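Students often ask why we bother encoding 3D structure as a string. The short answer is that it lets us treat folding as translation between two languages. Here is a chain of 299 residues written in the first language.
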Amino acid sequence: MDLLALRYFQTVARHEHISRAADELHVAQPSVSRMIARLEAELGVSLFDRQGRQVRLNRYGTAFLRRVDRALSELDDARREIEDTAGLSLGTVSVAAETLLTLTGLLANFRTEHPGVGVRLFQSSAEAMVRQLRSREVDFCVASQPLAGPALRSVELVREEVLLAVPRDHPMASRERVSVGELAGEPFITTRPGHWQRALLDKLFTDAGLKPLITCEGDEPGATQDLISAGLGVGLIPAMSRQAATHAPVAWLHLDAPDCYRTLTLVWREDGYLSTAARQFRELATTRLLLVHRNASTR
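And here it is in the second language, the structure alphabet:
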């Protein structure tokens, strides 16, 4: 069975779209289609249900993908281990996070301490992170909500309070605390479903028997404070952002609600090979972010 065909199949299965897979593989779309067709002919079954260039894994494809992910992951681990042992490369670390702003300070320190190590970054939802870990597209995920899956291991980096940010001229701006019930009807700026801010917002309002009024939702949590500062609404922002804020002034309030926290975790596969570079990143992440959190909590 052709190894290249398995790579093509894995990429198409991840995107469930021929053209997007071809773009990632840097090949022409007909080449991908032909490779998948030959693989299906060799196996004697169709792996996808087709609707034009959009494809969906069927039950055969889903079962086959589990084995392909495992086989290719073992081969990739073998290559990384050999390169690591032989000193052929200083290595590369691949990291996914819901917002890349979480990683800026950590990455600056990592590049200073390990200037020869390459770094690849992905901005991903929690659902995408699980897929990336399963296929070993990434070494680590920095997640703000639990990631479930076989062979996943995590370590808690930060547990911090989540605050309510409001514009400086908001009627509540001079207060220290507010209840969820008092926020009924307030326009919220938040992220799309799948991000931790949205999950927390929905939970807080559901627990209070309410539904939030959402006037703006997007995929970049880092933009929330700027939009709040511009007077477009209110929103949930982790306390760490308050300490780091140097722009977009807002007023900060505590929420009278249980479990109004964000827990930031570092997640990886415990059944895969971690290169020296990856282990160095993990060591720095577990010390750097904890140190930042301790310093912020004492201010």
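Translate back mentally: Residues 17 and 54 are 5 Å apart (CA to CA). Keep this in mind for the problem set.
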